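Example A, followed by Example B.
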Amino acid sequence: MPLLVGHNDYYPFPLKDEFAVPILILAYSSNRWLPFLRKVISIPLIQLVLILAFECARCFMALNWLKVAVETIPASRFKVPVVGPLICGTIGSCGGAFLPFEKGLKAIEDGVTYWILSGFTVMWLYLGTVHVAPIYHPTYTLTDTQAHGVCVLLLMFVQVLSFVYESIGNHHMRGVRKTWQSKLNRWVKGTRHKRKGD
């Protein structure tokens, strides 16, 4: 991301945070020498908690890069930059799906995944409510923190809805992990096959 926006004052992971390497060592050691933790993590409610924590971290990272892009990229066609921040935020939200760069666009060859689509949607919501709306509507009063909270809650709501659907709505499919990502991929593939048939 720093390469995309020409941000020279950024120190990549793990150079910036003193706790990064110790936490990585602790996570590896726990996974390697404490096998009972794998059983604990396999409990559905624990999985849900971890997924929600991941969504919070993903949203924080993506919005951070959107903010950096808004501050770094100069506005051209509009009063604020739009396309650049959306691209930076979306890439920051999809967990490095496009990395390393040698992969090119393989991440979207079979259609847009849930992670990319949800990240793009949240970036639109945040950019529109925090940076665009106040310029065109001076009486608009949604703060940065409030918009961040709405974005996190939206991502968490989708994961909770998915969890409830899988664990309660599909008794005959219990034990089979059917994520929103796979459902979205199947839907995109189906629409692409229909277009080819036309």
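Example B, a separate protein, is given below in the same form.
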Amino acid sequence: MFSNRTTKTVLIALLVTGLLLGAYTAGIGTAWLLVHPAVESRSDDAIPQRSGEDSPRSAAERTGGGDADLSVFWEAWHLVEGNFYGDLPDTQHLAWGALRGALSTLNDPHTTFLEPEPRQREVESLSGRFGGIGAHVSKAEDGSIILDPMPGLPAEGAGVQKGDAVVKVDQAEITSEMTVEEVVGLIRGEVGTLVRLTLRRQNQAEPMVVEIERQEIPNPSVEARMLEAASGVGYVRIAIFSDRTGSELGQALKDLHDQGMTRLILDLRGNGGGLLNAAVEVGSEFLRDGVVAYQVEKGPRELTLEVKSGGRYTDGPMVVLVDGGTASASEIVAGALQDRRRAALVGQKTYGKGSVQSVFDLSDESSVHITSAQWLTPNRHQISGQGLTPDVEVAITEEDRNQGLDPQLQRGIEYLTMESRSDESP
């Protein structure tokens, strides 16, 4: 009969081995082609994976010779179990750690593993909507988690006021050590379900309890306005390429046209990525035809990502603002507009993230992201590791930010003004 320790070790071995093989065969869940830039904690670039992929390699090939090679891992872990002074992780966290370690041997920072909660946040960001209460969440200087309800959404309707501090979410106590992301994860949930918040209000002795039904909360990706300081110049900022971006941009361009826009600034600074389909839709709003990008896969195989007809702003003067946080899908759009001589890039060199990740959802709602292709601009410029060099380089300093100045935006306005004058010359 096996000892308890031996039984536990065997169970862990089966679990870890199964997850390792499952990550490679990727037979669970829906596959997405996704870009994951290593800039802060931004979202990624994805399209549904095509059918007809090559058959997976054998288990022996994938593990580099078979399960016998894992014996050293279990030899070491047995020693950890017998000698480590402290609490050991449960089998789930051990499996996740083993998977992260296995992926790290690929020496590719974009082939990654996400636990269930971060994966859910990623899905919500890319969908452009989530189940929530409609409130901004922030952390006060004393560590309290503070709510600020959005007009017309469930939190405001339930009586939540700006400055209310969250004491409990359902039965979970909120502590000063918790991050905003952790509390947001507790508050969000499936649309139609109830969340019970215990709140502390300033100048009120006793905490108050409110029950709020979660609703679908939109998460807009496009901001648009006319620039008051520049006649006829419209401004569009895209924060992320989500499911909503194409339709949001189309509506924004229509509204700006109705307001008299004759020139446009597209701001992609700090945009770390999003859905590939959305990037193609955005590029297609500004190009009449031709290529947005090429996708080069193993084989090698090449997929041409072509412009979709019907763009709303394909002729007028245009500038794209970029910086070191412009990555992935934003680099696809910026690179297409620069190569096709449709727009000038103003700002700083982009991040340089042009690889594609296939993302597979696993049975425990975690996911594995595996690099599977590279993108090239229409002129076949490699984005990965190189980025895009602006046509007009303009830095922005911390002093500029502190003073509310934006020299990159100002230089973009000047560029459009000079170009407009040049067009009017006899």
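On Example B: The CA atoms of residues 226 and 259 lie 8 Å apart.
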